[in-house]
What does this fold into?
Amino acid sequence: MVSSESLQFTNAETFKDFTNIGKTISAGRGEEVWVELESYRDLEHRDEVIARIRQDPNAGSPFRKVIGIVSPEQCSIMGDFNRLKV
It folds into this structure.
């Protein structure tokens, strides 16, 4: 992994012609929305890192514990993004 960041959503001003992400992801009163960004060199590098994690018996338990704390009884949202060069 090249880098990993965890971000916590805060309610901020939404610019004209934009939609606030809080309106697209449901969160009840007292709940929080977190985003974790993981960066890899490329898709092949990501697959190598994930394969090593899956083969490591010490990695599974902490991962399940974090998921249980962060989103108990919920399914986490996941997606792949390409960096835009603008």
